[in-house]
Amino acid sequence: MAPSAITFLTVLAVLCSFFYVLFYISSRKHGKGKGEALPGPRPLPIIGNLHMLGILPHQSLYHLAKKYGPMMSIRLGSVPTVVVSSPPVAEMFLKTHDAIFASRPKVQVLQSISNSQRGIAFTEHGPYWRSVRKICNMQLFTPSKIESFAPTRKEVLMHFTESLKEAATAKEVVNISKKLAEINGEMTLMMVLGPVKKYKEFNLIDLVEELTKIAGVFNLADFVPFLGAFDLQGIKASTRTLGEKLDYALEAVIDDHLQKKQDDFVGVLLTELDQTMNPNGDIMDRNSIKAIILDMIVAGSDTSAATLEWALSELIRHPRVMLKLQQELESIFGNKRIVEENDLP
Ligand code: HEM
């Protein structure tokens, strides 16, 4: 036998033994280990149950849950994961034991974005998060603050409807998904940063869109951590570059707001700059403010746009409901005026 064939067979034999041992350990742990009594499909070594998710994971999980019940255990790579799929069990996790499950996983993308742990959305549950959240609730998410941006939202919406009318007259095709993302991005930036035109050079909407995309990519490193160091998908490198660009832009936004007092989210947060937030001695510094601003922009843009897109597509899929809605709107508002926020119940 040629030496290369012998080497190949030896490597194969070592790998097979390695996988067998891993498989043995993982299946023993999965089924019988203490504290892991949840039912669930048997995981493979290395990839766990990833191969069972398919291209529509929500449907695959639905079918698995039908077999294993409303609380099952699966492994995403080496990450043990509990899948809950009934209202009472969801209530147990999200309400009764909320504090235990409130933290977010430490995914690679967030670790590569500096300060992500100083914000609100991805910060560990604890005194720092509680203080930041309290400040946001008391200063930013008050009914009067939200109401104060109503004219801004109306202005963006008017431009949007005008552009639709023009496109209709010219019989142009409009990409509604793209438009919804644009107007939501614009509204959010105006509420958070104020005069967005000033910051146009930083292309913040594009940067945030890129961040949302990267964060949504299936990143092998999050599930098979030993592959993280190799950055096989290039995610770590591109996130670092993106993080630097975002940081540069947010530094400029803060400097600008420090020079001229403004009433937007950044302006309000800056009134807390360098203040101690809690008895633990946590301080609201520039890093905290940059992280909170970024969280607000990311959390406010894609979520609302995706919700609107989903609602519109459901209406298109159900003409009976669409007709009912059109009739209701016509009977209340006619064709005379645009529906206002305070028309809503
Ligand atoms: C239809 C639109 C939206 C949807 C469906 C949505 C959904 C969610 C969900 C499911 C969470 C996680 C809650 C949790 O884990 O307890 C969340 C958190 C959050 N959202 Fe939204 N959101 C929307 C709009 C917004 C907007 C407009 C903003 C701000 C401008 C925002 C800011 C945040 C923040 C800061 C968090 C983190 C809260 C925390 O960790 O304490 N969201 N959102």
Please supply descriptive tags for the structure shown above.
disordered N terminus, Cyt_P450_sf, membrane, Cytochrome P450, heme binding, 345 residues, 2 domains, 2 strands, mainly alpha
The name of the CATH superfamily of the largest domain reads Cytochrome P450
Number of strands: 2
Class computed from helices, strands and strand pairing:
mainly alpha
Global geometry? globular
> Could you say which small molecules are bound to this protein?
protoporphyrin IX containing FE
CATH architecture of the largest domain: Orthogonal Bundle
Helix content: 55-70%
> Unreliable runs, pLDDT <50, ≥5 residues?
1-33
**What integer is the average pLDDT?**
87
CATH topology of the largest domain: Cytochrome p450
The helix count comes to: 15
Radius of gyration: 25 Å
Provide the succession of SSEs: HHEEHHHHHHHHHHHHH
Strand proportion, as a percent range, falls in under 5%
Question: Which class of the largest domain in CATH terms?
Answer: Mainly Alpha
Terminal residue distance: 81 Å
Overall number of domains: 2
Protein name: Cytochrome P450
Main location: membrane
Transmembrane segments: 6-25
Family: Belongs to the cytochrome P450 family.
Can you offer a commentary on this structure?
- One of its GO terms (molecular function) is monooxygenase activity.
- It is found in: Membrane.
- The chain is 62% helix and 3% strand.
- It is mainly α.
- The chain has two domains: 38-102, no CATH class; 116-343, Cytochrome P450 (Cytochrome p450, Orthogonal Bundle).
- Strands 1-2 form a two-stranded antiparallel sheet.
- It starts with a helix and ends in a 12-residue tail after the last helix.
- Mean pLDDT is 87; it is low at 1-33.
- Protoporphyrin IX containing FE binds next to helix 14.
